[in-house]
Amino acid sequence: MKAALFITCLADGMAPDVAKATVRLLRRLGVEVEVPMAQSCCGQAHINTGYPREAYPLVRKQVSAFEGYDYIVSPSGSCTASIRHQHPGVARGQGDEPLALAAENLGKRTYELSEFLIDVLEVEDVGAYFPHRVTYHPTCHSLRLLRVGDRPLRLLRKVQEIDLVELPDAETCCGFGGTFSVKNSAVSSAMLADKTAAIKASGASVCTAGDASCLLHIGGGLSRQNAKAKPLHLAEILAATKEDAQ
Questions:
Q1: DSSP bridge partners of 160
Q2: What is the pLDDT of residues 110-135, one digit of tens each?
Q3: How far is CA 7 from the centre of its chain?
Q4: Are 69 and 3 in contact (CB under 8 A)?
Q5: Which of 61, 171, 173, 210 shows its CA 20 to 30 Å from the CA of 147?
């Protein structure tokens, strides 16, 4: 099976280990991974801050970059949600119905990582080994737009030697929300304080999630509190093996 990796601009620029882990994991499971160099930002930041017209060329570029691939995989719930739920509307807002239809088709072929593993590869045990206490934060876009449900947890439960513990008030937003954390910093900081308190209460040494953006926000809060818990993307846990621990 061949799949294209939509790396996302955040992973490319700030969390490259997430992209590398995704590739390692997929290749270990027999997937031939390609990274189309024509891909770009999905335009989510533009759309969410009221600039859909500026996002229009990015939608067109994404549709073109991933043409011909049956499967596109992304280690980001929010970017996958943007492609699936925002891109057709951006195209229609510019009067481009052919692009809107092409964007809808792209959305049907684009999968968040846990969706691809569970729904397409039909695998839960990916051969991972991670001997640490871990708690899982379900990010808002993956939870409410993609509705990934318990897919990430099903994958984590199969990881060898993992000590998976419940996160109190897990479905509460971490407060990032992209530019929300800048424009509404006081509210964002209060939400982050609640989230980091829940992580510390869980006793976990690792907080994982399917979005590097939320983990950057959570990691910053934990770091400022000198907390023992550290953020780590779901892909990095699933890509870990016993050989890595030696």
A1: 129
A2: 999 999 999 999 999 999 999 999 99
A3: 10
A4: yes
A5: 61
pTM for this entry: 0.94
Any idea where the domains of the chain sit in the sequence?
2-120, 133-245
- Angular region, 50: left φ>0, alpha ψ -120 to 50, beta rest: left
Residues facing 34 on adjacent strands: 4
Alpha helices in 5-76 (DSSP H): 9-13, 16-28, 44-48, 52-65
The encoded tokens of residue 137 equal 């934060």
- On whether the CB atoms of residues 15 and 3 are closer than 8 A, the answer is no
Query: Which residues contact residue 54 at a Cβ distance below 8 angstroms, ignoring those fewer than 6 apart?
Result: 43, 46
Q: How confident is the model at residue 245 (pLDDT cuts 50, 70, 90)?
A: low
d(CA 138, CA 191): 15
Nearest to 173 by CA among 198, 206, 148: 198
- Cβ within 8 Å of residue 131, ≥6 positions away: 160, 161, 162, 163, 245
